[in-house]
C-alpha cells in the first residue's frame, strides 16, 4: 500500500482572496452561515477583528476568528472543512487564536457555543474553557440557547499548564 503524502497545513492571516474558500466551509458547517458581506466587513471595517485561515497549499481547509477588545478575546467562529475533520485542525486553529490573543495582551477568552454542539464543547473543554453562563434563545435560526464559555489565557512568553 502506497503512502500518500499530503501538503502540510499552514496558518495564515485571512485575506479577501480566502473568503470564497471560507464561505464554502461556512455553508458546509452551519445551518445559518455568515454571508460574504459579513466576512468582507470583518476583514475591511472591523478594527477589533482578527481572522486566520488554515491552508493546505492554496486551499482553505479551516478558519477561525476573534474580536480583541481591551484585554479580552471573543471567538466569533471556528470551522474545518468536512474532509479535514478529525485530524486536530480545529485544535490548531484554536491554539493559534489563543496564542495571538495572548500576544496582543488579552488575559481572557470567551465564546458562545450551542448546547447541542458537543464536539465543539469537547474541544473547548480540552483547551481549559469552562461554562460560565447561558444566553437564552441566542441562536436566531433555532432559538437554541448558547453556553458562554471562558478561559484565562497565559500571558505571552509564560509557560504553564492552565488546567492544574
Described by the principal axes of the CA atoms, the overall outline is globular
The assigned CATH architecture is: 3-Layer(aba) Sandwich
| Helicity range | 25-40%
What order do the helices and strands follow?
EHHEEEHEHEE
**Given the helix and strand composition, which structural class is it?**
alpha+beta
Measured between the Cα atoms of the first and last residue, the distance is: 44 Å
Mean pLDDT across residues: 91
Largest sheet: 7 strands, mixed
Instruction: Kindly identify the CATH topology.
Output: Aminopeptidase
Q: How do the strands line up in the largest sheet?
A: 1-2-3-4-5-7-6
Number of helices: 4
Number of DSSP E strands: 7
Nearest-angstrom radius of gyration?
16 Å
CATH level 4 superfamily? Gcn5-related N-acetyltransferase (GNAT)
Low-confidence stretches: 159-164
Description:
- It is a single chain.
- By secondary structure, the protein is α+β, with helices and mostly antiparallel strands.
- The chain has one domain: Gcn5-related N-acetyltransferase (GNAT) (Aminopeptidase, 3-Layer(aba) Sandwich).
- Helix content is 27%, strand content 32%.
- It is built from four helices and seven strands; from the N terminus they run βααβββαβαββ.
- It has helices spanning 19-29, 36-45, 89-103, 118-126; strands at 9-13, 49-56, 59-69, 72-80, 108-113, 130-135, 146-152.
- It has a seven-stranded mixed β-sheet with strand order 1-2-3-4-5-7-6.
- β3 (59-69) and β4 (72-80) form a beta hairpin.
